[in-house]
DNA sequence: CTAGGGTTAG
């Protein structure tokens, strides 16, 4: 005889009592209350009824105010839980720090032959996704087909999503082509999958062919472009999205703000901030964080502080964004003050906070402070320094001229040095003219990072600086033979809301004639101020005249000149460069700031330079 | 029940 699973509530307690308890459960808001209700249900026997028991479980297993451990103890005492209860537990674990428990529960569920329903697999697959369990995903995929859920759209969409998220775009595509039902969610998962693999063309293909696009389709494309280093395309999509009449939400704004930050287009970023204010969009912790990041990366620290002040929830990431903001501006002392304020406010720094603060020390030459912080990481905060932190320290010591100490740190660190570590040391050798060590490191770097054009250029220019033209040419030949190309220098300047892009030696700008003409005048004027082109370590073995032509067509010079002729006198010129600014350009821009009475704000690969009255905030330390 | 968002060394 089959056991009685659940006793009807009416036999155990009065109807009204049960209804009252259920009502309480419905309104329950925290675990304290829940415990009391649980006790009541135990006493009255209400817990033996499937529906109240399910409600109790669902509350405990919910991620917000529940307690998964409590849910588990309740669950374990339920005699033959039904499918809903199993699903509830699997869902709980899929959102928790121990998603593997979801898989174990599923295993038990199979063992006990509990039937599945349409809610079982989405949760289970989410668990697989968060633990990157690819083998298990395939096994579950097989079960899905066997148990007849192969056409259930939530289930197949979840499968598509796991495959896409894990980078297995082949399996995702196979399934996508197989299923007989697709909706916007299915198409969106494919977009996500292609962008995660860096296949933007395929993502566009999907995007262009899907029958209906919603905000998630657009946002996935935008964030895909940002991830692929195509912020201009991201902004393009953003404008198209608005033309399509899509109502913006926080997530779409976050991705777009990242594009603004990468491009350094303050106007566009400000426009979005104004939109947020106008439409009274709530600045949640993530949106606040990227807003701050956008302002600091576009050179407006004051506005970043303003956003910070107005935020209600100031978590560690928001503080870290501010500290990193000060770092990129070279304002190390203030970064330290914010680091202290943060801890006074009771917020503990995390690994990234340390990356930020150590970078800040590095750009400001605060060697002593950085050493203390680095040492306190493990001793006070309990973090093992990661390779990024070692990278910061090598950079800091190297910049400060403490090459020996930097080398010792690399030798003694417990992790294997990567390209970034050697890169930091090489940079230091370059700055401080340690050509011998530089050549050694340069060779190591090319071995570690043979596909990176910048490494060859760096080594070649060290040879050039030593007057070893043959060696320099040899390195350049080697680069050519490897089929590696140099990343061209690129500067972006935003004028009247349009981003103008200049490449080194590029003649494609519609106003290039005017720009060339204007620059000739500028050079003449600067020569009167004593300017002499610095050609010393230019790696090309050319006549000085030709070298000068090459150096005078650097992208940042084109951009600054364009800025001078296309903006009103006295207006700040804002430029973003993809590589480190060269020494000659740095000198020229300093002089321009004085002679033409312009403030010029330039972000290069590592930091901001604010040129004013013939000086730069980097103090020639970059 | 399924799809999009965070600060990060050179």
Write a structural description.
The protein is mainly alpha-helical and 622 residues long. Among the domains are: 405-487, Alpha Horseshoe (Serine Threonine Protein Phosphatase 5, Tetratricopeptide repeat); 490-616, no CATH class. The protein contains 33 helices and 6 strands. It has helices at residues 9-12, 15-27, 31-44, 50-61, 68-76, 83-94, 100-111, 120-130, 134-146, 153-165, 169-178, 184-196, 200-209, 215-227, 231-243, 250-263, 266-278, 285-297, 301-310, 316-328, 332-344, 351-364, 367-379, 387-399, 403-412, 419-431, 435-448, 453-465, 469-481, 512-528, 544-551, 555-566, 583-595; strands at residues 490-495, 498-503, 573-577, 600-603, 608-612, 615-616. It has a 6-stranded mixed beta sheet with strand order 2-1-3-4-5-6, covered by helices on one side. Helix 33 (583-595) links the parallel strand 3 and strand 4. Helix 18 (285-297) packs antiparallel against helix 19 and helix 24 (387-399) runs antiparallel to helix 25. It binds one DNA strand of 10 nucleotides through helix 8, helix 10, helix 12, helix 14 and helix 16.
